[in-house]
Amino acid sequence: MVFQIGSALLDACVLSALEEEPLYGYALTQKVKSVVDISESTLYPVLRRLTKDGLLSTYDQPFNGRNRRYYVLTDYGKSQLIFLRNEWISYKERLDGILINKEDLG
């Protein structure tokens, strides 16, 4: 994709990916990477920041002799996701207003 993703949009993608269920780091990375071109080395600092800011919590669970760290959306994270979604809708509508040629859609 040629468009750069900003931190607010990346935050929204991470929070949204965790809305249905907790995910461990690798699974979360793969889910986000399915829609956004991002590396694991970029995503893990975002996860640490979101955890530090109280939007995510974590727990460890053993798996095949190792621990997997799972990320969970907190209540604050859920409210922030709602806020970011509303901001996205407004932003997308403004972008569509200038980028989408209505004649090309017809």
From TrEMBL:
One of the Pfam families matching this protein, by short name: PadR
Domain of life of the organism encoding this protein: Bacteria
The Transcription regulator PadR N-terminal domain, residue ranges: 14-81
PANTHER family: PADR-FAMILY TRANSCRIPTIONAL REGULATOR, TRANSCRIPTIONAL REGULATOR RV3488
Protein name listed in UniProt: PadR family transcriptional regulator
